[in-house]
Amino acid sequence: MSDRLPPLTALRAFEAAARHMSFALAAAELNVTPAALSFQIKSLEDHLGAQVFKRLNRAIELTEVGQLLVPGTRDGFETLTSAWRGARRFLDQTHITVTAGPAFTSKWLAPRMFDFAQTHPDIELRFSAALRMMDLDRDDVDVAIRFGYGPDNGVYSERILEDYFAPLCTPEVAESLKHPTDLLSVPLLYSDDTSFLNPPCDWGAWFNAVGVENPPPNGAHFNQADHAIDAALGNAGVVLGRLALAHKAMAEGRLIAPFQVALSTKAHFRVLCPTGAQTRPHIAKFLQWLRAEVQKADMITDQFEIISAEDAVA
User: Fold this and answer.
1) Which pLDDT belongs to residue 81?
2) DSSP string of 23-55?
3) CA–CA separation, 256 vs 258, rounded Å?
4) Contact 235, 171 (CB under 8 A)
5) Dihedral over alpha carbons 151, 157, 162, 167 (to 10 degrees)
C-alpha cells in the first residue's frame, strides 16, 4: 500500500467538509461550487480506496476511516497555517501587533502612541486589548505586555515596569484629606483586576501599612483598573490606584496622591515575544522606545515612601 498523499486540494476539501459536516458550507468557505468540492472528496476517496463520508438524504456522516483521518488532517492544516503565518510575519517589517491589558492599553500605551508614530513613521502599531494569555504564533501577535509574576517559558521575556499602589483622587476631594484616617469618611474605590496578587495590594494592606485600623470593608468595585481611575477622575471617591496607569493623570494634575505612601508588589509588567524576534529591526525599535518611555514614567515614584506588600500584611 502506497503512502503517497492525495492532492492538497482534496485533503483541504475533506478537512473543511468534516469540520462543517456539510458539503455546501465547506464549498462556501473554500470559494468553490458544491459540485467541485464533491469532486475533490471523490478524488480523495479514489486515492484512499475507501469512502470517507456516508452520503445521506440532505446530510453527511463520517465513515469509520473518515473519523480516523480527521485529527491528523486538522492538525496538519493548523500546522501549515501557523508556518505560513509565521513566514509572512517574518517578512513584514512595517507592522507590529501588540497585545496588552485593556487598562494598560488605554492609560499607558494609547497616550504615548503619537510620540511613537512621530519617531517611527515607517512602523504601524496594531493593538489587541486582552487579558488572556496569547499564543504568539497562533494569534498573530508580535509583542505581548502582561502584568503578573511569570515565569514565561519558551518565549523572550523582559521585565520592563514595576507598579505601585497608592490612594489617588482629584485635588477637590483631596482638600478634606489631612490624615489617613480621613479616608474612612470618604467613598473608597476598589479595582478587582489585581485580586490575584499574593500578598494583596488592596485597601486593607494600605491601611495596615500606615497604621489605620478597621478600614471600611465596602465600596464601589470595578473589574478594570482604568474604570476605577476614571471614577476617581469623576470625583466619585478615592481609588487605591496603580501609579503606572495613573501616570498621565498625575502628571497633568488631574489626580494627586494625598498621602505619599505606596505599596509595592513582586508582580511586574513584562514584555514578551517569540524567542529571537526581539532582534528583528522593527520589534527592536519598539522595545527600545518602550524602555525609554518606562524610564520617564518611573520618575513619578520618587516622591513616595515605598512599603512592600509583604511588610504591610506582616
Assistant:
1) 81
2) HHHHHHHHTS-HHHHHHHHHHHHHHHTS-SEEE
3) 6
4) no
5) -70
This prediction has a pTM of: 0.72
> Can you say whether the dihedral through the CA atoms of 103, 105, 109, 111 is positive or negative?
negative
Task: State which residues form the domain around 245.
Answer: 164-265+300-313
Question: Residues 154, 187: one domain?
Answer: no
How far CA 174 is from CA of 98, 130, 261, in Å, comes to 36, 33, 15
As given in the structure block, the three cell numbers for residue 212 are 489605620
Q: What is the pLDDT of residue 1?
A: 54
pLDDT in tens, 23-53: 999 999 999 999 999 999 999 999 999 999 9
CA distance 261 to 204: 14
Largest CA distance in the chain: 86
What pLDDT is stored for residue 138 in this prediction? 67
Same domain, 148 and 190: no
Order of strands, sheet of 305-308, starting from the edge strand that comes earlier in the sequence: 220-222, 188-191, 238-242, 164-168, 261-264, 305-308
pLDDT confidence of residue 113: 87
Please name which of 180, 202, 186 lies closest in space to residue 258, comparing C-alpha atoms: 180
In this prediction, the residues of the chain whose per-residue pLDDT falls under 70 are: 1-2, 92, 133-139, 298-299, 314
Q: Are residues 294 and 305 in the same domain?
A: no
In one letter, which amino acid is 224? Answer: Q
